[in-house]
């Protein structure tokens, strides 16, 4: 496991190849790449699946969050205000932004939902 990166005033450690205090990483570092995802398999936050794979490859495979967990489990960390959000809070609004601080998130992250979340019949609304 890699050494955690402690973000600004947050007490939540983020693992992986983090490059700044807003959870951007070596792999994804645009202005809008400011979230970290809690992986169900280990309970640790990583900026992306590639950071998780690099850090845990020899220890475990990633597990997706089940559909019934998407409403209540805190699975996303905003890299601007450091609020922990449920999947529904993160992806359920009309725009890709934090419900607490209104920071914009990368809408292209939706292309990777299937890696982190078992959507089942549930959809981000």
Automatic annotation (TrEMBL):
Keywords: Metal-binding, Zinc, Zinc-finger. InterPro entries: UCP017292, Znf_CHY, Znf_CHY_sf. PROSITE patterns: ZF_CHY. One of its GO terms (molecular function) is zinc ion binding. Pfam families: zf-CHY (PF05495). Residues 18-103 form the CHY-type domain. Signal peptide: none annotated. This is CHY-type domain-containing protein. It comes from Suhomyces tanzawaensis NRRL Y-17324.
């Amino acid at each position: 496991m890699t050494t955690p990166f402690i973000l600004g005033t947050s007490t939540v450690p983020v693992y992986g190849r983090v490059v700044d205090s807003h959870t951007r990483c070596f792999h994804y570092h645009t202005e809008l790449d400011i979230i970290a995802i809690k992986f169900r398999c280990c309970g640790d936050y990583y900026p992306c699946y590639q950071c998780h794979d690099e850090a845990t490859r020899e220890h475990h495979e990633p597990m997706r969050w089940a559909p019934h967990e998407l409403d209540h489990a805190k699975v996303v960390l905003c890299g601007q205000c450091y609020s922990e959000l449920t999947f529904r809070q993160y992806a359920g609004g009309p725009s890709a932004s934090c419900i607490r601080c209104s920071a914009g998130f990368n809408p292209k992250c939706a292309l990777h939902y299937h890696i982190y979340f078992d959507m089942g019949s549930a959809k981000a609304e």
